[in-house]
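Give me the fold.
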Amino acid sequence: MKKFVLSLSGLAMLLAIAGCSQETVEPTETASVDGSKFQLSSEPNGALNVIQAREDAEDGKDVVLMGRIGGGANPWIDGLAAFTIVDDSLRACSDIPGDSCKKPWDYCCETPKLPTSTALVKVVDEDGELVKADASELLGVKELSSVVVQGTAERDDDGNLTVLASGIFVKKK
């Protein structure tokens, strides 16, 4: 009987240790990411607008483009440093006097033009990996912020443009 009790005690201890190890919470990278290394202190020269960049940027080549954060009700990719930008020639609903759209960054007034006027921006680290941090917190930006993005173009077969961004300049209004 004594051996049986000791065995149960040992089993309970093993389960407790195993249970504790499953409750360990991994620290998130978000807390340790320094956004300043991705923020450019001056505006890069030669920025293309989004529409022009979609036409001219070559896959794997350096590109600099400018636009405003938006293009959907939620232009952010949750938990990642990625967002969409829209060509400056398109008008957000807030640019239209009297428009009371609650999410003017979705560009619902320009919906037919959006497919050829947006680009996806992914902020990547020195290893080319997408930064696992909220872009708005990392860069101090919000919907309709004007940005100049410096990085490498990535094209898909449908003509969509993604920029693997190494630096972002946030324009002041």
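The helical segments are 2-22, 50-56, 135-139.
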